[in-house]
Structures are given as C-alpha cells and as structure tokens.
Design a protein that fits this description.
Blueprint (H helix, E strand, L loop, with lengths): L11 E6 L2 E6 H4 L4 E7 L5 H19 L5 E6 L3 H10 L6 E4 L4 H6 L2 E3 L6 E3 L2 E6 L2 E7 L10 H7 L1
Parallel strand pairs: 3-4, 4-5
Antiparallel strand pairs: 1-2, 1-5, 3-8, 6-7, 8-9
GO cellular component, one term: cytoplasm
Family: Belongs to the peroxiredoxin family. Prx5 subfamily.
Pfam families: Redoxin
C-alpha cells in the first residue's frame, strides 16, 4: 500500500473537464502542486453523496486558503458518471477524476472487493500530496467516515 513519502504512480486516469474528459498521468497531474486527493467507493452512494463530496465542496475555499492548488475526488467510476455527479453536487471547485478500470487504485494498493455492489472499488481515503509525494495519508476503516472527511484534512493542513 502507498505510504507517507511515496511518489504518486505514473498511472493513467481520466480528468473530468467542463468540455468533457481528458486523459492524464497521475504523477504528472499532481507534480509541482499541493493537492488534497480524496477517494470514494462510488459516486451517488449514500455517504459519498451526503457527506464526503459535499464536505469538500463547502470547505473548498478554506482548504485552498491553506496553499492547496487542487482538491480532487477520485472514484472507480467512468468519467460520465463522475461528471454528472460533480454537476449534481455543485462541485465546480473540485477536480473530478475517473479511475474507470481501477488502475490508479490498484497501483496505490487501496482496492476493496464489493461483490455485487460494484466489484473492485476504492477504499475511502484522503491524502495530501506535495509535488507528487504523499505527505498525509488517511485511510478509513471499513464502513467508517472520520479520517478522510474535509474537516479532518483541513485541520491537517
């Protein structure tokens, strides 16, 4: 599993943009920036939609005021789902990233198998990345929502 001090892997992801989507290499996307990256098990799921993403939307200005260049949400969903979910959540300040085939999540060692819920998904986590290197990593225990929420990450900044 990725840990504090690890470099973000050079794995392809899809960044959702107002114009549609664009391919990116994660290590390049986060290079030279201070980034808060949080992962959810699935777009439109209860905790993710009611608390996780909305918390970052509400606190985006405060997080960015701490010198953060990008707040990004990643999920093992396709770009179309991430775009629609971001629009419905008014997440203009959040960079929505699709990890459709779970390549990024697998490279981090943060997958979980959910069976009929959706198969391979991401564990719930949040990390702070500085110039491509992990400086904070908060991985939730199963069915928990404490260490990855926006308030916790804001306090860590």
């Amino acid at each position: 599993m990725i840990s504090i001090g690890s470099e973000i892997p050079a794995v392809n992801v899809t960044v959702v943009t107002p114009e549609g989507q664009e391919a990116a290499v994660a290590s390049e996307l986060f290079a030279g920036k201070k980034v808060v990256l949080f992962a959810v098990p699935g777009a439109f799921t209860p905790t993710c939609s009611a608390h996780h993403l909305p918390g970052y939307v509400v606190l985006a200005d405060e997080i960015k005021a701490k010198g953060v260049d990008m707040i990004a949400c990643i999920s093992v969903n396709d770009a179309f789902v991430m775009k629609t979910w971001g629009e419905q959540q008014n997440a203009e300040a959040i960079t929505m990233i699709a990890d459709g085939g779970a390549a990024f999540t697998k490279a981090l060692g943060l997958t979980m198998e959910t069976g009929d819920f959706g198969g391979t998904r991401s564990q719930r986590y949040a990390m702070i990345i500085e110039d491509g290197k992990v400086t904070t990593l908060n991985v939730e225990e199963p069915k928990q929502f404490e260490v990855s929420k926006a308030e916790t990450i804001l306090a860590a900044l």
